[in-house]
Specification:
Number of strands: 10
Distance between the termini: 40 Å
Structural class: mainly beta
Radius of gyration: 13 Å
Number of helices: 0
Length: about 120
């Protein structure tokens, strides 16, 4: 069964850092471009970052460019999101998924940026 499990969220002060992880199973992870998304309750889920299947190319939404880094380890079926210089507006539930043929959304991981 295809599955994605996110982890690594928490409470952090403005300017702090967090590293999110997403472990995939049940499909050919090394063949799948992956994305991170986030959602604030009551708002639309929004795209945050994309990484190609090989990890050679990445793309980011403008508001996180230069602060967030997406990466992957195909030997561990894991995609990461390193988040630095966090701001209160980064507070959201973060999800990962395949770029194409998205799977049902997982539970996500809560990131709260607050002093």
């Amino acid at each position: 069964q295809d599955q994605i499990v996110e982890s690594g969220g928490g409470l952090v002060q403005p300017g702090g850092s967090l590293r999110l992880s997403c472990v995939a199973s049940g499909f050919s992870f090394r063949s799948a471009a992956m994305r991170w998304h986030r959602q604030v309750p009551g708002k639309e889920r929004e795209w945050v970052a994309t990484i190609t299947s090989s990890g050679d190319k990445t793309d980011y939404r403008a508001s996180v460019q230069g602060r967030f880094t997406i990466s992957r380890d195909n030997t561990q079926n894991t995609v990461y999101l390193q988040m630095n210089s966090l701001k209160s507006e980064d507070t959201a539930i973060y999800y990962c998924n395949r770029k194409i043929f998205r799977l049902p959304w997982g539970q996500g991981t809560q990131v709260t940026v607050s002093s």
